[in-house]
Amino acid sequence: MSILDSLKHAALSALKRESRKAVSKAVNTAVQNIGKGRNHTEKFSFSALPQTLPELKALPEAKMDTAFKTAALTVLALSRYETDPEVTFEMLAFLKGPETFNNSEKSFMKDRLSGKEYKVRSFFEGAVPENDYTPDRPYVVPISENPYSFDNENWATLYVTSGGADHPRSIKLRKKPSTGEWFLNDIQCLGDIRLPKSEDKWA
After folding, report:
1. What is the pLDDT of residues 103-157, one digit of tens each?
2. pLDDT band with cut points at 50, 70 and 90 for residue 29
């Protein structure tokens, strides 16, 4: 083998080694970053809960430019059910954007919340069975994602944590690409939780 051939062989070998290193580094970085930045919680704080649709619309979160903001507004809308279900329905209709909030959804809401309005209070920080789901003040709503929350383009599944349940509960949202707004799609967080202490005969 000539000196020139030896130099070419050495250069080619070195190039292959560096290429393998670069590929290996890229793969390792990708593996390490799976889910990174997609497993966090955003907390929304409110000094008071909106009592009317205009009050809900006046909140900064009502821009609905992130799925997290719309999920937090959904909890606020649901919290009004205890004192005025019709206002809750108005708020949810607003949060659904292009879709309607239909009678079937209203019936579902009544079935899940009538006599069990404490379910919604449980999504606020500090609300646990022992204090009959009395939230801390100001009202804080944590909204969480997981690595799969945004797997489908223009769709998101985010989570609220109940002080009376062992696992997070989901809220499904959909993005309108032409405006960048995220709207409520499906409320999946209203399953039963532990009873408030005052209602639990075994407490």
Report:
1. 999 999 999 999 999 999 999 999 999 999 999 999 999 999 999 999 999 999 9
2. very low
Please check whether residue 113 is in contact with residue 120, taking contact to mean a CB–CB distance below 8 angstroms: yes
Output DSSP code: residue 130.
G
Adjacency order of strands within the sheet including 139-144? 41-46, 139-144, 155-160, 169-176, 181-188
Block residue for tokens 């619309």: 57
Surface-to-core class of residue 88, CB atoms within 10 Å of its CB (0-12 exposed, 13-18 middle, 19+ buried): buried
- What percentage of residues in the chain have a pLDDT greater than 90? 78
The one-letter amino acid at 182: W
- The one-letter code for the residue type at 48 is A
Q: Which residues contact 73 (CB under 8 A, 6 or more apart)?
A: 56, 59, 61, 62, 64, 91, 95
Which string of DSSP letters, residue by residue, matches 56-106?
HHTSGGGG--SHHHHHHHHHHHHHGGGT-HHHHHHHHHHHTTTS---HHHH
Q: What is the DSSP letter of 184?
A: E
159 contacts 123 by C-beta, under 8 angstroms: no
Neighbours of 101 (CB within 10 A): 18
- Cis preceding-peptide flag for 138 (omega within 30 of 0): yes
| 56 Cβ neighbours under 8 A, 6+ residues apart | 50, 62, 73, 76, 77, 91, 94
